[in-house]
Design a protein that fits this description.
Blueprint: H1 2-30, H2 33-38, H3 40-58, H4 62-135
Helix pairs in contact: 1-4, 3-4
């Protein structure tokens, strides 16, 4: 009997922690417009799970209410991961753009160096021809 009471209390405390953590994650995501846009479906599911958990707890079904709070935490965590993934993809896109710009600059610089080397070679050849003409008379 004592073990059952301790287990039930542990489930209730775990559910309260799940609810608090889910609420905390959802509040943080609500402050980020991009996160709300990217993870709107999973955020809505987390909020629905919390709402249904409240209804079950109000009707006295604390076990299923706690389970729904755990579900809400899972959805909130998924939303948070979606936000992180979207941020990483955005950073990747920015890095790819910068990389392309740098590659273009390097290509242009190489072309300029090659042109300069070719001009120098032509100038040296012209100089050599002029020196040869001066020596012959």
């Amino acid at each position: 009997m004592w073990l059952l009471a301790v287990t039930a209390a542990g489930v209730a405390l775990g559910a309260a922690d799940a609810r608090a953590r889910a609420t905390e994650i959802l509040a943080a995501l609500a402050k980020k417009p991009d996160a709300v846009r990217v993870a709107s479906a999973s955020i809505q599911k987390a909020n629905d799970a919390l709402r249904r958990a409240d209804q079950l707890r109000a009707s006295g079904d604390h076990k299923r209410g706690g389970m729904l709070e755990e579900t809400a935490l899972e959805w909130a965590s998924a939303s948070e991961q979606l936000d992180r993934a979207a941020q990483s993809e955005k950073q990747l896109a920015e890095l790819q753009t910068r990389t392309t710009e740098l590659e273009t600059k390097v290509f242009r610089a190489q072309a300029l160096v090659e042109q300069t080397v070719a001009r120098r070679a032509r100038a040296e050849e012209a100089l050599r021809k002029l020196e040869t003409k001066e020596v012959k008379p």
